[in-house]
Amino acid sequence: xxxxxxxxxxxxxxxxxxxxxxxxxxxxxxxxxxxxxxxxxxxxxxxxxxxxxxxxxxxxxxxxxxxxxxxxxxxxxxxxxxxxxxxxxxxxxxxxxxxxxxxxxxxxxxxxxxxxxxxxxxxxxxxxxxxxxx
Length: 134
What we know:
This is DNA-binding response regulator. By secondary structure, this protein is an alpha/beta fold. It has one domain (6-122): Response regulator (Rossmann fold, 3-Layer(aba) Sandwich), CATH 3.40.50.2300. The chain is 34% helix and 17% strand. Residues 100-104 and 122-134 have low confidence and may be disordered.
């Protein structure tokens, strides 16, 4: 079975970072650059990610230096699918190939491990579907 091709588009405010991403990803098997309109994944900076969320079909992978809890929450709440710090590993291809619902979970787990967000234990969360007496 042939590998599924993942098309990506890079839209980043920092030209050197965008060029580095292109150099890293171009020519990788299973990945191909393309226009935003047909991309499976948009790799972008924080501001572009928030502007594009909800307006593009592509899944949004945010690459940023912003490592605050507030920035992470705002991005995930705003519809970003993956959140990577620019200081992360160069295995962006691995992240792209797994960018699905688990990417949001992974971003939250990493943020919790780094102490950026507090995760409530399962028994302290409010019950779904209203009050317990209903």
